[in-house]
């Protein structure tokens, strides 16, 4: 059986990390952080925006900001030509 995470990476999804800064209505001056991580597709981030929509509907906390980091872990290999030879005698 092939891992679901591997399959979504082959479909172009990358690892997305979001730092969500939020506060509860009864303590508006106390900011808290929530780290969220999932495979998602940049630049639209449908999985993240579904999660944020769920948050707004179900959680009684106001989101102040969201910072996003994203990296495709599976991508074409890079190859660089090198001119020259390095010799070493130990």
Structure description:
With 90 residues, this protein is an alpha+beta fold. The protein has a single domain (4-71), classed as Ubiquitin-like (UB roll) (Roll). It is built from 2 helices and 3 strands. It has a 3-stranded antiparallel sheet. The protein is elongated. The chain starts with a helix and ends in a 19-residue tail after the last strand.
The number of distinct helices, counting runs of at least 4 residues, comes to: 2
Number of strands: 3
Amount of beta strand: 35-45%
Q: How confident is the prediction overall: mean pLDDT?
A: 88
Biggest β-sheet strands, sense, barrel: 3 strands, antiparallel
In the CATH hierarchy, the architecture is: Roll
At CATH level 3, the topology is: Ubiquitin-like (UB roll)
Low-confidence stretches: none
The span between the termini is: 48 Å
Task: Please write out the topology.
Elements: H1 4-10, E1 14-24, E2 27-40, H2 46-58, E3 62-71
Antiparallel strand pairs: 1-2, 1-3
List keywords for this structure.
90 residues, alpha+beta, Ubiquitin-like (UB roll), 3-stranded antiparallel beta sheet, 2 helices, elongated
């Amino acid at each position: 059986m092939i891992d679901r995470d591997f399959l979504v990476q082959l479909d172009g999804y990358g690892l997305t990390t979001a730092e969500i800064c939020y506060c509860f209505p009864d303590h508006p001056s106390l900011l808290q952080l929530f780290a969220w991580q999932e495979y998602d597709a940049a630049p639209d981030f449908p999985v993240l925006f579904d999660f944020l929509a769920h948050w707004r509907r179900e959680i009684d906390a106001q989101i102040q900001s969201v910072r996003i980091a994203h990296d495709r872990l599976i991508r074409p290999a890079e190859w660089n030509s090198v001119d020259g030879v390095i010799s070493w005698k130990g």
